[in-house]
Write a structure and sequence with these properties.
The protein is built from 15 helices and 50 strands. By secondary structure, the chain is of the alpha+beta class.
Length: 800
């Protein structure tokens, strides 16, 4: 530690309504209350703070609340309704306590805030029973205690369960101790790092290569509260178009046009649902972005129109690589208008792209942002529906720069002046997606954009979905994909997924089929591969095709549940795919589980993760759980050995759940929903939200949505289901509703819809053809009730 210069002692230097300033001859620290459970700490090796600027922070205007200050000769205190910050003046140390006076976190006694040249770091107390989760995209297990992590966007070319760093950087973590959580976000875009007890077992530390120490402390104590407040700070996902939640098929590369049409026709002929087809770099003319290879794709507008008639959306790749060619219009515009990243000597920085040398747009520049947004117009008007932004860590393919990226002293011209690439590197990909989103909105101002990106930073979920990069078609990578995506979800990246089956090598049929089952129960679902074989759902023979078809159909049936989960994520910031620790922070077995997760509120996913396995141990947290396929009940907490044939991945439903679903569809807009089904798993009192809108436009922001609360009260004598009156002005076409009540030990004596007793149907056919009525399935012990969907509140009663 000798090379680190400690901050030393500080003196109070000013007080405002919600902040305290401290300083000495070498340093300044400002501690500011943003919310009762959110504190910001800024420290610089200078007599004053620099101007405040952030690419990550979305919310900067916080309502004022009650803040109390007190002091004595040694300490200063800041108190809110939820937290107390105690500041020791000499040596300067910061500690956080809850409202009861219990210590949550504090600076280490032997080393607090310190500098080593331009580098800044802080050391904090690490209790023996505290564990750390989040940190964005990491391939390591969920619990990061004892590890050293780096935030530096990088194309690793290949990665495994110990690789560090990867494509995306979110310097945020959630700490968990004895069921209580707090969070910490380091708002610094330079290369940052976290040591979580690998150097000293009772100390963790974090810091940056340059810039200020700027961190936000989230008091919790519930992990959901931490995630919610963090995503309030950095922003939450925008509601995507509904089709983006369908299945997407991709490979590197589908060409020429006849191949793309062949793939589309196979999906429809084989009756396998699919909503998107992806075109990789080979659709372009010599890898020049925003162009078409007219030999391979002679009439892209007609092709995309025909695909759209079949229910497919076309997704195109766009890389931040502009081929150096004086005859190429994009390069000429960029060069003439000074739009490219420059070297320190003022010349244009170039590196090898997919073809020849490439220049790179300076996305940090407002004028480049505007220019880039305009470049999408022609392709969007031709029919491109969405974009994937790749290679935007950023990557220089030839090793011309440090670690295959730009020179660190390359210059970006930002709205706050020139900045080095070392400062902009981690936000380069996020800024590209921001400009891309703007470009799509200019052409289609009332249509929700859909962008997928490989690189981003904290808050990047505001602009794009993320996928986990170039994984491998191995069981190891299927296993690591779960903690990887769950860690991203905890870090605010809610719309995430992995390449189903891996990008290389070609997986075994069993692995691809098992990964398909798992990947379809993640927020973003696509197959993407390099080959040499084709990873289409029918690529491994009739048996696997049949299983894959049913897996994809299940996702489409669950789309009302999934769409509601996405809407809830926009409101609360809670991940759609979430680790068990988020719901059960006081259950250490649940906290330590890496190969199970919750999809939405109520589905417990427990995939097969080893070759040749036809069974596994499933951990059920406390409460009652239903087997999704058989309705068998399990009581947690318990670990249970279960059979799991390839045809059915272990999938379970939390008691109290109410799952909305729809009829089978080949694409998300093939039909209006009819029947809308609510699967009810009664346990005492429970309720869930159901959300719907047109799935395309921004009209929901003006009240054109449908929102209802479904409530269930159950007892041995009666199950009552109440569907609230609709909120919002969205009116779906007329349709039926089916309420399906699971695991009722006996047939109801009577069923009422509203005040009217309805008839029992003796056959499934009669029930399906009727407008209203009920039936009971003896084998599954399930009661079905059908009635017309009305705008008024409805009450259904099953009397026993």
């Amino acid at each position: 530690m000798a090379e680190w210069e400690s901050i030393g002692g500080l003196e109070p230097a000013g007080k405002k309504a919600n902040e305290l300033t401290f300083s000495n001859a070498r340093a300044t620290v400002v501690i500011k209350v943003l919310a009762p459970d959110l504190i910001r700490v800024r420290a610089v090796h200078a007599p004053s703070l620099p101007s405040d600027h952030s690419y990550a922070v979305f919310k900067s205007d916080w309502p004022s609340g009650k803040v109390d200050f007190s002091s004595d000769r040694k300490d200063q205190k800041i108190r809110t309704e939820r937290l107390e910050v105690r500041v020791q003046l000499s040596p300067f140390r910061v500690a956080f306590y809850d409202a009861k006076g219990d210590l949550i976190s504090k600076d280490s006694d032997f080393q607090g805030i310190s500098w080593n040249g331009d580098r800044v770091r802080v050391w904090k107390w690490e209790p023996a029973d505290e564990h750390y989760f989040g940190f964005g995209e990491k391939s390591t297990p969920l619990d990061k205690r004892g590890r050293s992590l780096v935030m530096w966007n990088r194309d690793p070319e290949d990665f495994d369960a110990s690789s560090e760093p990867l494509y995306e950087s979110v310097p945020f973590f959630l700490a968990l101790r004895r069921g209580r959580a707090y969070g910490l976000f380091l708002g610094n875009t330079w290369r940052t790092s976290f040591d979580l007890g690998s150097e000293f077992p009772d100390v963790y530390s974090f810091g940056a290569e340059e810039g200020e120490l700027n961190y936000y402390f989230f008091g919790g104590p519930d992990p959901k509260q931490v995630v919610s407040r963090f995503t309030e700070l950095v922003g939450r996902i925008a509601l995507p178009p509904r089709w983006a939640l369908g299945y997407i098929q991709s490979r590197y590369s589908y060409y020429p046009e006849s191949t793309v049409r062949f793939i589309a026709e196979n999906f429809r002929h084989r009756e396998i649902p699919c909503d998107g087809l992806f075109l990789d770099i080979d659709f372009m003319d010599g890898y020049r972005i925003f162009t078409w290879d007219k030999t391979r794709f002679p009439d892209p507008k007609r092709m995309m129109s025909d695909l759209r008639q079949q229910g497919f959306h076309t997704i195109a790749i766009v890389d931040p690589m502009v081929t150096v060619d004086p005859n190429y219009w994009v390069y000429k515009q960029g060069l003439d208008n000074d739009y490219f990243v420059k070297k320190a000597d003022g010349t244009v920085f170039t590196g090898k792209g997919w073809g020849d040398a490439s220049a790179y747009p300076d996305f940090a520049s407002p004028k480049v942002h505007d220019w880039w947004a305009e470049l999408f117009k022609e392709q969007l008007e031709q029919g491109v529906a969405a974009y994937l932004t790749d290679m935007n860590e950023p990557v220089v393919i030839a090793d011309q720069g440090p670690a295959r990226t730009f020179d660190l002293d390359a210059v970006h011209h930002t709205e706050v002046g020139p900045r080095s690439h070392a400062e902009i590197h981690n936000v380069y990909g996020m800024l590209e997606t921001l400009a891309t989103r703007e470009g799509m909105l200019r052409v289609r101002p009332n249509e929700r954009p859909f962008i997928i990106t490989r690189a981003t930073f904290a808050g990047g979920q505001r602009y794009a979905a993320q996928w986990s990069g170039d994984n491998y078609g191995t069981w190891d990578h299927l296993r690591l994909s779960m903690p990887m995506l769950n860690g991203m979800g905890l870090s605010g990246l809610q719309f995430v997924g992995a390449d189903i089956g891996g990008i290389v090598p070609v997986p075994s049929p069993e692995l691809y089929t098992g990964w398909m089952q798992t990947g379809l129960l993640t927020p973003f679902a696509w197959t993407h591969s390099l080959g040499p074989g084709n990873l289409e759902p029918w690529g491994f023979g009739n048996r696997m095709e049949s299983i894959n078809r049913e897996s994809i159909k299940l996702r489409y049936r669950l789309l009302p549940y999934i769409y509601t989960a996405f809407w809830e994520a926009t409101q609360t910031g809670q991940p759609i795919m979430r680790p068990l620790l988020l719901e059960y922070p006081d259950d250490w077995t649940a906290v330590g589980t890496n190969d199970e997760y919750l999809f939405g509120n109520d589905l417990l996913v427990a995939p097969i993760v080893k070759d040749y396995d036809e069974g596994r141990s499933v951990y059920f947290p406390r409460g009652t759980w239903y087997d999704f396929w058989t309705d068998r009940r399990y009581i947690g907490p318990a670990s249970v050995e279960l059979n799991a044939p390839l045809e059915r991945m272990p999938l379970f439903v939390r008691a109290g759940a109410i799952l909305p679903s729809q009829q089978d569809m080949q694409c998300t807009d093939q039909f209006p929903i009819d029947r809308l089904t609510f699967d009810v798993y009664p346990e005492g009192s429970s309720s869930r939200e159901y959300y719907d809108d047109d799935g395309v436009s921004f009209a929901y922001q003006k009240g054109v949505y449908l929102r209802q609360r479904i409530s269930v009260e159950s007892s041995p004598e009666r199950v009552s289901v109440k569907i609230s009156q609709r909120q919002g002005s969205f009116h779906p076409p007329k349709r039926s509703i089916v309420v399906r009540v699971h695991l009722q030990a006996s047939e109801p004596r009577a069923v009422k819809v509203g005040n009217m007793e309805v008839s029992r149907h003796a056959s499934v056919k009669a029930f399906q053809e009727s407008a209203m009525g009920w039936m009971y399935d003896v084998d599954s012990k399930t009661a079905w009730v059908k009635f017309a969907d009305e705008e008024t509140a409805m009450r259904i009663a099953l009397v026993y």
